[in-house]
Amino acid sequence: MSTISREEVAHLARLARLEVTDDELDAFAGQLDVILESMKTLAEVDTDGVQPTSQAVPLVNVFREDQPQPSLPRDAALAGGPDTFEDRFRVPRILDEEA
Amino acid sequence: MSKLNTYEDAVAAYEPVLGLETHIELDTRTKMFCGCSTTFGGEPNTQVCPVCLALPGALPVANRAAIEATIKIGLALNCSIAEWTRFARKNYFYPDMPKNFQTTQYEEPLCEEGYVDVTVDGKPYRVEIERVHLEEDTGKTLHVGGATGRIHGATESLVDYNRAGIPLVEIVTKPVPGTGALAPEVARAYVTELRDIVRSLGVSDVRMEQGSMRCDVNLSLNKPGAEWGTRTETKNVNSLRSVERAVRHEVRRQSALLDEGIKIIQETRHFQEGTGETSPGRSKEEATDYRYFPEPDLAVMEPSREWVEELRASLPEPPRQRRERLQAEWSLADKEMQSVVNADAVELIESTIAAGAASSSAVKWWLGELSRRANEAGEELGALQITPAQVAELQGMVDDGRLNDKLARQVIDGVLVGEGSPAEVAQKRGLEVVSDTGALEAAVDEAIAANPAVADKIRGGAHAAAGVLIGAVMKATKGQADAGSVRQIILDKLAG
């Protein structure tokens, strides 16, 4: 019994807006299954009496003051994008949704 | 085009249940998790950095001022403030966020369990608050394509991330049943009260027309006594008037479907400002799969009780209490004050008085002539192009006898279309009361000569007949005379 189904992979691909062929679905489901199976090893650790945490560093209340800092020069900011037009990032429009 | 019931039929057969989600952009100087400026209107992508662009390795740090503002909002809404709270990632893939997630709060919001009291039609309603949490705003996308002619044959989006990362507070109500036919008014009253509360805190300019306050309206219908129905969520509701219209429209639309035995589907709808209708957006089933998980890059927060109490002590007079005080100061009856509140005129009137007008005059202008203008234009009162200081100036001109009411209304015409201050408009349009006594006396003489029978009556003591002559003089002076002065001149001339 695999940990992740082909349907779940298809669903995740859709959420991530990835186009995945049927062959790829089979391949990814198999590969993800291996990864998830390996991660299951962690479930064998006895965690009775251990507080759940989402962080490795025991810090609380780390804040910054509301002081403006320089932003990136625009050209540098735009350089990281796939394409630009009129100082904006240009991306394919997602057709099935309204902004 | 969907079929609609009349509103009266709809609320006679069904009971609405409301819910409101409101997003408020905080006016901190910097973004939620980085030091980029939040100034509105900057050139595209000039207020971005590795953190808000999610470049590899960048680490967010929470803005203390935004946390404080959110706690203040929570306290003002009678919420309890979490002793332990953290951020979460809401994962979705859409180009308005470069990170492919939005940093928000999920199971542990900063504030929970509060309420807002409103009064509608003399009846009190308590709108319960489920949660108040802090998140970040998204970037602005501009959709362009062949249809716009800007880029031939292309269908794409252009993104400006200046807004991405600006602190955004989300305030979610619990479902509000029991409003009956007053659902639209209760919704509006709540959003108005919320806006006034947040504005009084000075943490946001809460301007719906500029998008610093945005509202989603949830609505379902059920038959009396039956279980609550399936709700729709209407987005893009960007004015107080639209809140009311959106509720009204959904009540009419949903009831027509339910009458035909059609099930309401849980979906996001979009409010169309032009028609006052809602149109379907994406359906919820896929979109809600956000795979939230705790944000590992931000430290958890434990707001100390001392901090919370310090913030509580800094809260200003609550707007509701303030309104009661002002009502007494302005000597208004409950009904009049309610009109002031409904017209969203409290601050406008207060500012007008501060600019020198008597309270009765300030109330008269904003509730009378200016409300009428706003209605005609389909605008909010505050959106009219006249300032409280200008209204006070106008009233000053009336008090000085330089304008009568009719001329004052013509001056308003000019101010509203941007011709300048009341004094400037009066000068440019030549709108001043004729105070030249010689000219008035000549006009009165003419009127008497033209109406000898009326003049005789007045000589005989029938002062009420003076109206005819006053009318003639006003006509001759194109309304630019002070009726009181004219009357006095007439009576003086025809005395004895």
Could you outline the blueprint of secondary structure elements for this entry?
The complex is a heterodimer of chains A (about 100) and B (about 500).
Chain A: H1 6-15, H2 22-39, E1 63-64, H3 74-79, E2 84-85, E3 88-92
Antiparallel strand pairs in A: 2-3
Helix pairs in contact in A: 1-2
Chain B: H1 7-13, E1 15-25, E2 62-63, H2 64-76, E3 80-81, E4 88-91, E5 101-104, E6 111-120, E7 123-136, E8 140-145, E9 155-160, E10 167-173, H3 183-201, E11 213-222, E12 232-237, H4 240-259, E13 267-272, E14 277-283, H5 284-287, E15 293-294, H6 305-313, H7 319-329, H8 334-342, H9 346-354, H10 359-367, H11 369-377, H12 388-399, H13 405-416, H14 422-429, H15 437-450, H16 452-459, H17 466-476, H18 483-493
Parallel strand pairs in B: 12-13
Antiparallel strand pairs in B: 1-10, 1-11, 3-6, 4-5, 4-15, 6-7, 7-10, 8-9, 11-12, 13-14
Helix pairs in contact in B: 1-4, 3-4, 9-10, 9-12, 10-11, 12-13, 13-14, 15-17, 17-18
Low-confidence stretches of chain A: none
* Count of separate DSSP helical elements of chain B: 18
Cα Rg of chain B: 29 Å
The amount of helix of chain A comes to: 25-40%
How many domains of chain B? The number is 3
Gyration radius of chain A, to the nearest Å?
A: 22 Å
The structural class of chain A is: alpha+beta
The CATH class of the domain at 1-44 in chain A, by name, is Mainly Alpha
Biggest interface: A-B, 42 and 60 residues
Terminal CA distance of chain B reads: 74 Å
Secondary-structure content class of chain B: alpha+beta
- Give the overall silhouette of chain A: flat
Span from first to last CA of chain A? 41 Å
Number of strands of chain A: 3
Strand content of chain A: 5-15%
Order of strands across the widest beta sheet of chain B?
A: 3-6-7-10-1-11-12-13-14
Gross CATH architecture of the domain at 1-44 in chain A: Orthogonal Bundle
The chain-level mean pLDDT of chain B equals 89
The 3D shape of chain B can be described as elongated
